[in-house]
Amino acid sequence: MPPATPSSPSRRTALVTGASSGIGAAVAAALVGRGYRVFGTSRDPATVADPVPGVEYLPLDLTDYESVEACARAAGEVDVLVNNAGESQNGPIEELPMAAVERVFRLNVFGAVRLTQLVLPGMRSRGYGRVVMVGSMLASFPLAYRSSYVAAKAAMKGFADAARREVSPFGVGVTTVEPGSINTGISERRTQYVGEDSPFREEYRTMVNALNANEARGISAERVAATVVGAIEARRPRPLYAVGSNAPLVFALRRLLPRAAMLRIVARKHGLG
């Protein structure tokens, strides 16, 4: 891939949330390599264990709108926004604390929407912009015991799909990238809510063990990052890009099979008969 030149579009400025590890760090590194000026966010930039060379880190707490607004001001004119930061959450719907459900929506949806609102006027006035929502294939293929996470990722995609038409006449592209199973160590960071005496505990553990095994065999963060960069640099970004977990095959099956059949296939893949 040739290096970027000062006059090329890749001299633009990108803001990548959750850039301290995983997909966010891989996206930030890929964009630096393409010649972008990259701001990456972390709750506390001073604690980033392995900072990406060339990335300028900004503090961001997506649950705090004042923090979101301060981050947008610090970044200034942003041409590319990658809404990647969030929380992965599990639990039977009966046992999910509402405070936890609200937190996952603040982190995964409301903070991302507010940050998008703040950068869109500048993109629109300059006649160019790209907003990428990093979602999950679970939004398209829901899985038991992941209801709050599935709903949050589906909400992100809903905002993106509806907003596309609003901003596309101004040269702004909005898209969603849905990764499948990813080997980024997220299994250790996922928040879980299930009681010791839960009637769902045995089946829940079966699902989690299958989920962790799938993620251990999953694609790399760098492969997801390549898809994100492709969406950013596409002349006309598609509404949805999916990568990993045999995405072309499973999305083809989704078009052919009844929804109930697809839900059964997803359940069986995770040990749920």
Structural classification: alpha/beta
Radius of gyration: 19 Å
Q: Can you identify the CATH superfamily?
A: NAD(P)-binding Rossmann-like Domain
Q: Reading side by side through the largest sheet, how are the strands ordered?
A: 3-2-1-4-6-7-9
Distance between the termini: 46 Å
CATH fold name: Rossmann fold
CATH level 1 name: Alpha Beta
Give a topology summary:
Layout: E1 13-16, H1 22-33, E2 37-42, E3 55-59, H2 65-75, E4 80-83, E5 89-90, H3 98-126, E6 129-134, H4 147-167, E7 172-179, H5 186-189, E8 191-192, H6 201-216, H7 221-233, E9 240-243, H8 247-256, H9 259-269
Parallel strand pairs: 1-2, 1-4, 2-3, 4-6, 5-8, 6-7, 7-9
Helix pairs in contact: 1-7, 2-3, 3-4
Family: Belongs to the short-chain dehydrogenases/reductases (SDR) family.
Organism: Nocardiopsis terrae
InterPro entries: KR_dom, NAD(P)-bd_dom_sf, Sc_DH/Rdtase_CS, SDR_fam
Describe the structure.
With 273 residues, the protein is of the alpha/beta class. It contains 9 helices and 9 strands. The chain has a single domain (9-269), classed as 3-Layer(aba) Sandwich (Rossmann fold). It is 47% helix and 15% strand. The strands form 2 sheets. It has a 7-stranded parallel β-sheet, sandwiched between helices. The chain has a two-stranded parallel sheet with strand order 5-8. Helix 2 (65-75) runs parallel beside helix 3 (98-126) and helix 3 (98-126) runs parallel beside helix 4 (147-167).
Quick take:
This protein is 47% helix and 15% strand.
Using brief descriptors, characterize the structure shown.
9 helices; 9 strands; two-stranded parallel ribbon; alpha/beta; seven-stranded parallel β-sheet; disordered N terminus; 47% helix
